[in-house]
Amino acid sequence: MTVTRSVGDDVGEEPSRDDGPAVSGTVLSRRRWVVTAAAGAVLLAGAGVGASTLIKSPAQAAADAAAPEPDVLSAVVDERVLKDSVILRGTVTAGQSVEVTPVLAETGDSGTRTVVTKLPVGAGDRVSEGQVVLEVSGRPVFVMKGTLPVYRDLKPGSVGDDVRQLQKALASLGHHTGRDAPGTFGAGTKTALSAFYRDIGYDALPASPDEEDKIGAAREAETTARRAYQDARKALESTSGPSRTAAASDGAEDGKGGTDPETILARAAEDLQKAEDLLAEAEAAAGPMLPSGEVVFLRGFPAHVAKVSSAIGSPADGAALTLAAGELVVHGYVQETQKGLIRAGHPVEILSELSGAVVKGEVSSVADSLSLSAGTDPASAGGEEGTASGAVPATPDGYLIVVKPGEALSSKVLGEDMRLTIETGSTEGKALVVPVTAVSSGADGRSTVTVLEESGKQRRVAVRAGTSADGFLAVNPADDGALAAGDRVITGVKGTTGMQR
Questions:
Q1: Non-local CB neighbours of 89 within 8 Å, separated by 6+ positions
Q2: Do 420 and 90 contact (CB within 8 A), yes or no?
Q3: Any bridge partners for residue 400, and if so which?
Q4: Which of 60, 84, 165, 352 could covalently link to 146 via disulfide, CB atoms 3.0 to 4.6 Å apart?
Q5: Cα 145-204-278 angle, rounded to 5 deg
Q6: Which long-range contacts (CB under 8 A, 24 or more apart) does 248-255 make?
Q7: SS3 breakdown of the chain: % helix, strand, coil, rounded to 5?
Q8: Cβ distance 305 to 381 under 8 Å?
Q9: pLDDT confidence of residue 90
Q10: pLDDT tens, 91-119?
Q11: Where is composition skewed (Basic and acidic residues) in this entry (predicted)?
Q12: What is the Cα–Cα distance from 478 to 419, expressed in whole angstroms?
């Protein structure tokens, strides 16, 4: 039996089992057609794409063959103070460095050993004028202000510039030397020196160990001579006129002389004068002395203990202390290529890299000649051989730069390595600043920069170059307003072969 159905009849109806094979064949046929059409479309699309890659218009081919558009490098014009500087290393030191080597004064006691008995200061301590810094075998070593080194013991009766220096030092400590002439160790200086020793807790040593014996003997001789003179005078006064004449006549006849009372008195007067002079000399020579081993003269204060090389109880057979005198400064060395850039008065930034502290200062002086230090290796001195004694030729450290801090440095940084930034040039106030690579010079010698406008246009601006530092240059446009902060200037062009200008 054949069943005739419209297309609409298929909707919502279940086909009969007898019609199943016929319906399945129709569906499969439709699906094969759809798949074939889709595959064809894909093949046609791929062919179109391939054709588009192989076929180019003449304009497109020329564009592809041309060099790529170069990249323009630019920088913004800044407005600021531009400073040029030199950076070097420096060491904190003092204006004067003195090694204190104890020398025990002669006391007449052969059994005294030279040992350190007191050490009242330590490394880094501040030292004031008149302070005791060391005691050796019970005797003090103190510091005073002065420029002359000690080379002898100063005793009563001494004369010289070193005595004048002692007198000034005593006066600055409050012990004036009275009417003593400057440079003469007299009674006033003796009194002042004795008072100073009492202030620091010690007795001054006598100028001579046996001075008391000498004074005693001179005083006894003076007493004897005075009595003889007094006796001669009484004898003369007790003799009448005729008797005096007869005595003088008798003395002349026997040729002995001396029996004349007047002659006896004259000779007694001479003896008394000599005895008085000897006593005055003995007394003048007696009194306190300043042993050369008990004082250290320093050029300025405050002073600091740079190094302690001894301990209590150790033999004092070498330098016991090293003192640094005067305000602390920083020493650096600069080479020939930079020496001409640095002058006295240039500002300096002193940086402690240990603490991070920064102190302002200025260049105090620049040496005119190279500073030399002993070498350690002949090869480092150009291969030259040392002397017969094995010494190595000196090698240059550079030109010494002395930097004076604007404020006093702590003694704790004595000997510390510092970073010095020396300002060698600066613009006067704010200036227009561009990278050095933005400035070019033409054949006419004019300097220009190229301003890059927002539109992409470029324009040349003539400028006058000023201070340069750290890769930047201060510029001033030849025409007012031609260049301003915030403008962009071309610093280079990056092409396929690298950077170009």
A1: 332, 417, 418, 419, 420
A2: yes
A3: 333
A4: 165
A5: 110
A6: none
A7: 30, 30, 35
A8: no
A9: 94
A10: 998 878 899 988 876 655 555 678 999 99
A11: 220-236
A12: 39
Radius of gyration of the chain (CA): 53
**Which pTM does this prediction carry?**
0.54
- Give the DSSP letter string of 191-241: HHHHHHHHHTT-PPPBSSTTHHHHHHHHHHHHHHHHHHHHHHHHHHHHS-H
State the burial class of residue 132 (Cβ atoms within 10 Å of its Cβ: 0-12, 13-18, 19+): middle
Q: What is the pLDDT of residue 254?
A: 47
In residues, how long is the chain?
501
> Taking the CA of residue 481 as centre, how many other CA atoms within 13 Å lie in the half-sphere pointing to its CB?
0
Residue pointed to by tokens 């059409």 = 37
Strand pairing category for 83-100 and 321-334:
antiparallel
Q: Residue 296 and residue 309: Cα distance in Å, rounded?
A: 17
Alpha-carbon torsion angle 277, 282, 283, 284, nearest 10: 80
Residue 364 confidence (pLDDT): 93
pLDDT tens-digit series, residues 13-71: 444 444 444 444 554 555 565 556 555 554 555 555 454 455 556 666 655 555 555 67
Q: Which residues of 16-40 are buried (b: 16+ CB within 10 A; e: fewer)?
A: eeeeeeeeeeeeeeeeeeeeeeeee
Going 334 to 336 to 337 to 338, the CA torsion angle's sign is positive
Cβ 350 vs Cβ 90: under 8 Å: yes
**Spatial CB neighbours of 343, under 8 Å, sequence gap ≥ 6:** 363, 366
**Position 2 confidence tier, pLDDT thresholds 50, 70, 90:** very low
